[in-house]
From TrEMBL:
Residues 56-90 form the PX domain. Pfam families: PX. It comes from the Eukaryota. Gene3D superfamilies: Phox-like domain. InterPro entries: PX_dom, PX_dom_sf. GO terms for molecular function: phosphatidylinositol binding. This is PX domain-containing protein.
Amino acid sequence: ELPSPYLLVYCIKPFKERNRHVFLKGVPVTVHVEGIERNLRGFKVRPNTVYMMRITHGDFTWMVKKKFKHFEELHRDLLKHKFKARVIKPLA
C-alpha cells in the first residue's frame, strides 16, 4: 500500500531531478517589486534592504520578501548552472 493516496494521482519526483516540471508549460512567470523595507537594526554600517515582490504564474500568486544577498546567491548559482550545462553537453 502506498503511504499517501496523493501518490496515486501524481508521480512525485525529487525536486532536483532533471526532468521535473515545476512550471505550467507556456505560462509566463511575472515578478513585480511591490516595495522595499530598510532594516536599520543595531549599529551596522549598512542597512539591510528587503525587497517585497509579487510573483505570478497562471492563477497562482505569491508574496515574498528577499534580501539583496539572496539575489547575489541566485545569480551565482545560475552562472554555475549555465557553466555546468555547457560542460555536460556532448561534443558533436
